[in-house]
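User: I'm writing a short methods note and want a consistent example. For Swt1 family HEPN domain-containing protein, I'll paste the sequence; you return only the structure tokens, no commentary, since I'll be parsing the reply automatically.
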Amino acid sequence: MIDSRDLRDWLFRGLMFEAEADRFRLAGIRVGADTEASERTLFADQLAPFGVDLRGEALRMARLYALLYCFENSVRELVTQRLRERHGEDWWTQKVPRKVQEFATTRQKDAKDNSWLEGHTKDPLSFVQFGHLSDIIIANWDDFSDLISSQHWLKQRLDELERARNFIAHNRYLLPAEFQRIEMYVNDWNRMVGL
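Assistant:
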């Protein structure tokens, strides 16, 4: 039988190690297993059955997917943060247009009822379409006008990025000039909102 003091000491030492390991990681010192190398190996193994050209395209598109993933989710975070700070915990029901709320509710229900894919979130904003994000921002323009130059700029950029996102989601390959335009739009956004 384990003594409760021994268990407590063991848990405490584990917590202390984790705190120290985080300090080392922040300083750029590797602690523990090299998860990055393991991920690269697993990724390469998964792609090995496919041709070199197809793998090359996939890797280039993966970079673009990662950029759009980060961009879209940072917009979601901005919307949540701004509206929660300025309107409290009821921001979703008070500040999101009714049609967007209804869309999210329908998607949540469908995901719950008909899918084996659950995801990791119950956040209703994660169930809205990319284009709805500009609708929410425009509906609450007073809360975002200090960050974004104009509603026209917002709508134009997010509409174009949504088209590119959907193109990528259907596994179509983009041209280098299209990569550059997407990167430029995301960089413009990041500069504008202070990321």
